[in-house]
Amino acid sequence: MCGMKSIPAGIFSSLSWMLGKSIEISPIEPVLNVMPGFSKYTKESWWNMERDLFALLLKFCSNEATELRDKIYAFLGIASDTRNGNFEASYEVSEEELVQDVVSFLSFGVKIDRSLFSAPRWTLHDFFKNLTFLPFIVSDGVN
């Protein structure tokens, strides 16, 4: 919606296809693929690929959010591996605790007690900066 004008999400997300324009290199491509419409259902859409929490965080890690925790919490309801209810948004935890929770979830498939798992003691900024390398960092046991 822009002012008093609006367009259905399905049409908006399909406009690039209808106009013959490519958005594949655009930072908005992942966002458009989440919206209902043609692009979401094409076999080339990332939406049809693995949508676990790690994949979503990688796909959207460069997006901005006023509250950094929302860059994680936004995906808890749509990630394929967070539907068991073990991982819920809590704005009462610190950034460092959230990073530890996310790393334990990505490592074990469940959020475990922080005292039982040694995760990097990072801010969210550090977490997103190192996200691509996280599987190697965790497997090496580096704090």
Could you please describe the fold and organization of this structure?
Helices cover 42% and strands 0% of the residues. It is mostly helical and 143 residues long. The chain has two domains: 39 residues, no CATH class; 91 residues, no CATH class. The protein is elongated, with a radius of gyration of 17 Å.
Distance between the termini: 45 Å
* Largest sheet: number of strands, sense, barrel closure: none
How many structurally independent domains? 2
Number of β-strand runs: 0
Strand content: under 5%
Spell out the key features of this protein.
mainly alpha; 2 domains; 8 helices; 0% strand; elongated
Tell me the layout of helices and strands.
Blueprint: H1 9-18, H2 29-34, H3 38-41, H4 53-60, H5 70-73, H6 95-108, H7 124-130, H8 134-140
Q: Short summary of the structure?
A:
This protein is mainly alpha-helical and 143 residues long. 42% of the residues lie in helices and 0% in strands.
